[in-house]
């Protein structure tokens, strides 16, 4: 994929007034609004260009803001994308392509930050001798540190040399996980076989965890 041009109709609101009851300015971007994604360099950095011509109009309709508006906007954009493929190419968008709208790096960062915040609160409570949950605090802070360092890989994608490697890792991750699942089944079978067959004849055999 080298370049993508998106043309659309957009309506924006400009809040310049200090007073709460003053009517804001509404701008309408008709078919002249377009966004261009330029990936000709193939360096992991996609240049984005925005071209538009605005028209001032009277503000009408209901405005939805906050997280609810963000969720509705993403849902509408996804539905429009699915309908476009049905109308244009007579194809249904598969689930894997729909997941492209969700950035896994942002989810990883969000989970890491939440675990860091909760772990830090527990650490402060432990320091104040109000709690004694050392294990939970260690798990949260340790796991969040792991996620942070994994998230650093995302920034290596901005370099052309590492971008190809990261894309290869993302494409091969499902196959690697399937291989690990199959190898894990074989390892479990080997473990239980050794525990049942050889375990009774070994003087140190106590159980699966201690014997291995």
UniProtKB/TrEMBL annotation:
The chain crosses the membrane at residues 105-122, 134-156, 176-198. Keywords: Membrane, Transmembrane, Transmembrane helix. InterPro entries: MCLN_ECD, Mucolipin. It comes from the Eukaryota. The keyword RNA-binding does not apply. One of its GO terms (cellular component) is membrane. Residues 1-60 form the Mucolipin extracytosolic domain. One of its GO terms (molecular function) is NAADP-sensitive calcium-release channel activity. This is Mucolipin extracytosolic domain-containing protein. It comes from Neotoma lepida (Desert woodrat).
């Amino acid at each position: 994929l080298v370049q993508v041009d998106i043309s659309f109709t957009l309506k924006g609101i400009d809040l310049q007034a200090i007073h709460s009851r003053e009517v804001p300015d509404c701008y309408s971007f008709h078919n002249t609004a377009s966004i261009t994604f330029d990936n000709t360099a193939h360096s992991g950095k996609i240049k984005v260009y925005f071209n538009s011509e605005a028209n001032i109009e009277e503000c009408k309709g209901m405005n939805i803001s906050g997280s609810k508006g963000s969720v509705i906007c993403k849902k509408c954009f996804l539905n429009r994308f699915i309908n476009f493929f049905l109308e244009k190419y007579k194809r249904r968008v598969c689930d894997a392509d729909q997941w492209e709208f969700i950035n896994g790096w942002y989810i990883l960062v969000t989970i890491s930050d939440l675990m860091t915040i909760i772990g830090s609160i527990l650490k402060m409570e432990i320091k104040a001798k109000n709690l004694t949950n050392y294990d939970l605090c260690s798990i949260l802070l340790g796991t969040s540190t792991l996620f942070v360092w994994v998230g650093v890989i995302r920034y290596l994608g901005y370099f052309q040399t590492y971008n190809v490697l990261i894309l290869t890792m993302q494409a091969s991750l499902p196959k690697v996980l399937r291989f690990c699942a199959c190898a894990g089944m074989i390892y479990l079978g080997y473990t239980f076989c050794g525990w049942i067959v050889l375990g009774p004849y070994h003087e140190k055999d106590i159980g699966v965890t201690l014997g291995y």
